[in-house]
Input
Amino acid sequence: MSSIRCTIGRHQIWVEQDVVRVRIIGPFLPDAATQLLQLADQQFREHGRVFLLVDVGDSDLPGPETRRVMASWPYLGRYVAVMFGLGTLSRAATQLIISAQRVLGGPVRPDVHFCSSESDAEAQLAKLRR
Output
């Protein structure tokens, strides 16, 4: 299995087939959100599905422009995101994005799962990939 490691700003990305692992560090700006979603689109086109495992433990809350990018993105299909490291405010911000996707998005929206730890997120990811 080949893997790709890259960065988008300070954020660390590892790609292994249909899994995109992301560690968000500091502010998550609109340009970074766009680049990450473009990468997810590329993996979706190649594999017919994409799973994002997202560590937000070292991230800042996304601003309104970033939330807008994520909420209005024209997703190619069912993207699955498993997130961990969310504090109360981060989880609330993520819930706002999901709510906005319901209002702004088309018929396809990401399937988002929240986990309390990295090991729980890994287990959830394995379950969802089956």
Observations:
- The chain has one domain: 3-129.
